[in-house]
Amino acid sequence: MPLVNMTVNGRPVAREVEANTLLVLFLRETLRLTGTHVGCDTTQCGACVVHVNGRAVKSCTTLALSCEDAEVVTIEGLSDGEALHPMQAAFREHHGLQCGYCTPGMIMSAVGMVRRLGTDLDRDTIRDELEGNICRCTGYQNIVEAIRAGALAMADRPDA
Amino acid sequence: MREFGIGQSLPRTEDLRLVRGTGRYTDDIAPAGSARMYVLRSQHAFARIGGIAIDAALEVPGVLAILTGADATADGLGGFTSMVRRTGPDGQPNFEPPFAVIARDVTRYVGEPVAVIVAETLNAAKDAAELIEVDYEAQPCVADLALADAPGAPLVWEQCPGNLCVLTEVGDKSATDDAFARAAHVAQVDFRISRVAVSTMEPRTAVAEWSEADQRFTLHASIQNPHMSREQLAGVLGLPSHRIRAVALDVGGGFGLKGVPHPELALVMWAARRVGRPVRWTSERSEGFLADCHARDQIVHAELALDEEARFLGLRVRVKANFGAYLSLAGVHCALGNIGGLSGVYVLPAIHGEIRGLFTHTVPIGPYRGAGRPEASMMIERVIDVAARDLGMDPAELRRRNLIPADRMPYDTGFVFTYDSGDFPASQAKVQEISDWNGFERRRAGAWARGRLRGIGMAHVIEIAAGQLDEMGAIEVDTSGAIAVTTGMQNHGQGHETMYRQLIAEFMHVPPDKVSVRDCDTDQIPYGFGTGGSRSAVVAGFLLETLASKVIAKGKQVAAIMLEVEPDQIDYREGAVFAARDSNRSATLAEVARFAHQPMHLPPGFEGGLSHRQMTRLAGPTFPNGCHVCEVEIDPETGHLDFVGYWVSEDVGKAINPMIVKGQVHGGVVQGLGQALGEYIHYDEEGQLATGSFMDYQMPRALDMPAIGIVSSDTPSRNNPLGIKGCGEGGTVGALPAAMNAIADALGPLGITNFDMPATPQRLWRAIRDAGGMPHAMAAE
């Protein structure tokens, strides 16, 4: 089996994987990082979004081998120790989650959105940008509020 | 308001793990040495199975076992039973085929389990599945409800001619006939309530282990009701239920789907026992579309009789409801159990309904948020709008004229329900104000000037909540004064962990960080009904108040011993302190709890410890209600529909956490709007599922959905001391008819009177084109 090397949440990992192993299964089953979820099999729902080299990607349609030498950050790697990342805190503060299953992907997409589009996001932009993330519980309204607030909070945290 | 107590919008405790990705969903646990299960499913809607060849598949490296219907028969596997029984066409109890967990010699829906493959890896199991040869002899089938009772339609069950399983009447036929005979006007409408897939974001999933030493299963599963699931699974597997421990950890959405035991729960347990290893199973999304119980799917004819002053005289409905190929636990319930909602919030002297439940070659129907409530609400609320249009009346005025006045509470509808409380006129007035209902015609004219159709729709909501009155719970205080709460209800997004902490803060004055909430686990508590039917807040409020008062009473006895006074001299005060009245002596809850766990200090015969467990029974169900307004705009050139506004006035009684209540309303509304807009399960003539993934099944997305304005119009329930009513399902109950009324209102000026969900661009565009398009005269008005 081929060997893959990558950095996950700041730690170097090197593992043998079958060539057809998807990144999401590599994270969940091999590394036991189960915060990244699988909600569909057609790259529609976004429960599996992680950051690869700073970009939000759907790990259900990314081969683990394609992440050779990449920096991968999952939901578990977003917060700095005990303190929540501003986007995580905003989701809690604004009740942007109910069952929590889509939440890791939502938060990783939201942080990616801020990195691409800046910290002052209007609600229509946020709704458009969430095209690739499905939530069944919240009706999206509080997710939109959470992302708007989380983005503004990230403005005060340039490192976030 | 007490700090952390009832009525505060506290952020949720459970979020602390969920936003970090450290939740514990069932698929996150992978016991050492666990194998994987994959299910081979029927490719045919109706076929005889001549044989299943598994030899080649068994050769795949890593395969541990392949099990088929023949093995199930040899092991005596049964099927799930229906929790509701009604009458068949002959007046006898309806035919009830057990919901088989694996096909024997016949398959009756596409996706029915045919073989189970257990292997070291999922890939090995899937590779093996491809090598299994099933000898199908396909038969003609019927998948469409509209054709299920057509002459000559293929029969799902030979025992049920015409595929008619249940034929039931509700209400008073002769009184209703009389009402129609003297009516000044009769409004009529025919519509179809589409078939939808519940589609929780977390697919169904389970991990089973069999202990040979204990002769006992442990099942971790994504389920809403471990106790009820356990009973059903014990029946299928032929064991006493105490040989199963069922546990639900974090569950990624339920909405009724996960309250219904599904075949794979039994199969994964069976497989674990057969291979002697823990076995994991997780549905893929495409599998879920095939094999998760679908929901709704009814064909309705409704008629409303009105007098000269537009007062309602009677309602008549004829309903055909799809059951699928088998009866799921709650399939019959969905068609009949919540039909009481037909009476709405109106003075409606006579109601009669005839409900036919039919088998088709499709996956069984199960509950989905509302479970018959949105359907009943559609029937009364759609026909009211049709009557208003017939009479040239404002639909809001027609409703207002017929509302049950607040001063007639409690109100016996004369049909099924007796409403305990509610002020429907106030609720309607509030939503009319925040939606600027009276200014709508200006907005419509503005839209027409822009070449757009615009419509507004109103729907009142009333739903029975907490109809399952009983529940068990426990409060246990440890020697540090920390409190553990256990109930038979299960948290899958509703915020139970936060709500229980708020209730404990209210009743026992203990801060949230000293309270823990246990997982719903049949080993932790012997009984539970689980979560469903908008019950948890109502049930928990009464249950935890009762438990807390018992624990405090016991604490007073202990404190009395400690402080050397009589128990009736002890008060329980803010700060969780037991104080001797008229003295400076007191003891904290932690001190009392520690003392209570030192039997050597207690009098002989005094029961040590500080905890209490019991069942409670509510005095009655509650009736959360509200009034919804939906506003839509449609582009006649493209058929694109925008939800341009949505407003709700809600009466949930006393809200424990208003933030959570609003979240429940948002989510419920969007599930209703999603069905109105685009969600649609379609089987073709061969019974093949045409909408089997999120590529073909249009889930509501953020950009399709409106912001929702909510105003409270709460009146306390009289059926529980805290006045709580519940809030889980009302959003969906209101949104489906409000949206369809708004769409009908937008299309009405074109002469379109019957437009069924879903309102996809293609269907809207075609309906508008068939009606001759949007006249230029309208746009010029």
Describe the structure.
The complex is a heterodimer of chains A (160) and B (781). Chain A has helices at 23-30, 86-93, 103-117, 123-129, 141-155, and strands spanning 3-8, 11-16, 49-52, 55-58, 71-73. By secondary structure, chain A is of the alpha+beta class. Chain A has two domains: 3-77, Ubiquitin-like (UB roll), CATH 3.10.20.30; 86-155, Orthogonal Bundle (DNA polymerase, domain 1). In chain B, helix 10 packs parallel to helix 18. Chain B is globular and about 90 Å long. Chain B has three domains: 15-20 and 467-617, Aldehyde oxidase/xanthine dehydrogenase, molybdopterin binding domain (Aldehyde Oxidoreductase, domain 4, 2-Layer Sandwich), CATH 3.30.365; 31-82 and 97-139 and 199-291, Aldehyde oxidase/xanthine dehydrogenase, a/b hammerhead (Aldehyde Oxidoreductase, domain 3, Alpha-Beta Complex), CATH 3.90.1170; 403-465 and 621-780, Aldehyde Oxidoreductase, domain 4, CATH 3.30.365. Chain B contains 20 helices and 31 strands. In chain B, the strands form eight sheets. In chain B, strands 3-7-1-14-11-12-13-24 form an eight-stranded mixed sheet, sandwiched between helices. Chain B has a five-stranded mixed sheet with strand order 9-17-16-15-10, sandwiched between helices. Chain B has a four-stranded mixed sheet with strand order 20-29-30-31, sandwiched between helices. Classes of the chains: A alpha+beta (160), B alpha+beta (781). Chains A and B meet through helix 2, helix 3, helix 4 and helix 5 of A and helix 1 and helix 17 of B.
